[in-house]
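Hypothesis: this fold can be encoded by more than one sequence.
Test: take the structure tokens below, design a sequence, compare later.
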């Protein structure tokens, strides 16, 4: 995912968390107020990529269905993770809405997945250091199971 698109997705999540936006046009207008030049069709693709749903007529993040384990750390990751990228063979870069990286990083640390060496979390980005390419693939599989990211 490009950096601009990731930032736009973060802004959309911020906007729907603070305003009642009912249509794609309202989302586009709210983005325009924040300095983003987007079309309705771009907003439509963003809404689909973020898997937003309408609750009482306004866009919201999807409600999580309880996982069989009911692990709060898995729920934290599923609720906040909006993107994952690889960087080389031993690093994953995870993207969250602003303010969510630290809690997600702590959740990953508590899960203690095999192959994870450590995490560094900022405001909206987490670096996950893994032992090698095989560990990177294994962690990606686990993240996809939890979040349904592709």
């Amino acid at each position: 995912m490009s950096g601009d698109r990731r930032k736009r997705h973060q802004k959309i999540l911020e906007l729907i968390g603070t305003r009642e936006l009912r249509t794609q046009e309202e989302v586009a207008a709210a983005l325009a107020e924040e300095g983003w030049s987007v079309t309705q069709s771009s907003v439509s693709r963003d809404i689909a990529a973020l898997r937003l749903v309408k609750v009482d007529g306004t866009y919201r993040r999807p409600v999580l269905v309880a996982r069989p384990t009911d692990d709060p750390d898995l729920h934290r990751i599923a609720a906040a993770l909006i993107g994952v990228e690889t960087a080389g063979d031993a690093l994953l870069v995870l993207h969250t809405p602003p303010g969510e990286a630290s809690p997600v990083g702590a959740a990953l640390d508590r899960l203690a997945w095999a192959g994870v060496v450590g995490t560094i979390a900022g405001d909206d980005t987490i670096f996950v250091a893994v032992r090698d390419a095989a560990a990177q693939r294994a962690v990606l599989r686990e993240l996809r199971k939890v979040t349904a990211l592709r």
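The chain has a mean pLDDT of 88. The longest helix spans residues 3-18.
Hypothesis status: open.
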